[in-house]
Amino acid sequence: MKLIRIENLSFRYRRAKEYAIKDINLDIKKGEFLGILGASGSGKSTLCLTLNGVIPNSIRGDFVGNVYVKEYNTRETPPSKLSTIVGLILQNPDSQLFNMTVEEEIAFGLENLGLERDEIQRRINWALKITGLQGLESEFPPNLSGGQKQRLAIASILAMKPEIIVLDEPTAQLDPMGKEQVLSLITLLNKEQGITIVLVEHNAEYMLSFADRVIVMDKGRIILKGRPSEVFEEVELLKELGIRLPASIRIGAELKKRGILKKAALTEKELIRTLRSQF
Ligand SMILES: Nc1ncnc2c1ncn2[C@@H]1O[C@H](COP(=O)(O)OP(=O)(O)O)[C@@H](O)[C@H]1O
Ligand SMILES: [Mg+2]
Questions:
Q1: Who is most buried in 61, 114, 166, 237, counting CB within 10 A?
Q2: Can you give the pTM of this predicted structure?
Q3: From atom 18 of ligand 1, which residue's Cα is the shortest distance away?
C-alpha cells in the first residue's frame, strides 16, 4: 500500500534562483525503510519538508506537482492533520525540545491531540520503553546526552503514533555512541514496530544493512534509485557525487575491478566472510 505518493514535484524557495528539488516522482510504501543519500545542497532536506506539508504550507515558494499522504493532498491539508501521520525529526535535537522534563516533553504533543489522561500515560510509558529512556522521566532535557536528546525527540513523535517517521540527518550532531543508539532505535522502529521510515543519513554501511531502498539525489533530482545492494555497486558515480563510502565498499570495488570479487556493495562483515570463503 502506498503511504506517500510524490508526482512531478519541483520546489523553488522564495527569492531563490534555482529549484531546490526538480521533477521528483516517488512512492513510499507502508512499512518500507527508504534511505536518502546525496551531497550537501542536493535537496534532501527540502524533499523531507514536503512529506509533512511544511512545504508548501508553512514555507512558501513555487510548488509544482503534488504530494499525497494517504488520501490527503498536502496542498489542501493543514499541517496539524498531516503531523499525526508523518512525524519529522531534524538534525539538532535541541531545536526540538522545549519542556522542563522528559515526561512533559513526550506529553506535550499528546495533550494537544485531546486524548484521555489514561491514554496519554499509556503512550508516554510505551514511548519511554521503546526509546530506552525509562528512569529518566524527571530529567531536565538539556541535561541529557546528545543520543538521549535525539531519542527523546523521537519518543515525543512516536507517542503521537505516526505511520511514518522522517528523519533528516538525525545523527549528524551526535558522538559515536549517540549515533549508534539512534540508528539502532530507527532499525527497531521499522523492523519491530512496523513504522515506515524515511532516513537521510551518510552512513552507507547502515543503509546497506537496513534500508529496503535508497535514493541518491544530485542538484535537486533523484539520479539513482533501487535496493542498496544495487545502488552501492555504482561506486564511481557515488564517488563523483561526493558520497562517502565505507572502507568495505571501497575495498570491494577495487577487488571487483581486479576480478577477485563479483560484488562491491558489501558491509565489513560480508567482505570478511566473502574473502574467508574464497581464500
Ligand atoms: N530556506 C531556504 N531558502 C532558500 N534556499 C534554500 C533554503 N533552504 C535550502 N535552500 C537551497 O535549496 C537547495 C537544497 O537545499 P537542501 O534541501 O537543504 O539540501 P540538503 O539537505 O541536501 O543539503 C540548496 O541550494 C540550498 O541552498
Ligand atoms: Mg539537509
A1: 166
A2: 0.96
A3: 45
The grid cell for 178 is: 549517540
Residues constituting the chain: 279
How many A from CA of 211 to the centre of ligand 2?
19
DSSP secondary structure of 177-245: HHHHHHHHHHHHHHHTT--EEEEE-S-HHHHHHH-SEEEEEETTEEEEEE-HHHHTT-HHHHHHTT---
pLDDT tens per residue, range 25-39: 999 999 999 999 999
Can you tell me the distance from the alpha carbon of 175 to that of 177, in angstroms, rounded to the nearest whole number?
Answer: 6
Tracing cell 559515536 back to the chain, one arrives at 176
Residues in the chain predicted with pLDDT less than 50, given as ranges, are none
Cβ atoms < 10 Å from Cβ of 222: 21
DSSP state for residue 139 in the 8-state scheme: S
Q: Is 16 in the pocket of ligand 1 (CB under 6 A)?
A: yes
Number of other residues whose CB lies within 10 A of the CB of residue 258 = 8
List b or e across 165-174, with b for residues whose CB sees 16 or more CB atoms inside 10 angstroms. Answer: bbbbbbbebb
Report the separation in Å between the CA atom of 44 and the middle of ligand 1, taken as the mean of its atom positions: 8
Q: Domains of the chain: which residue ranges?
A: 246-279
Q: What residues contact residue 149 under an 8 Å CB cut-off, 6+ apart?
A: 93, 94, 97, 141
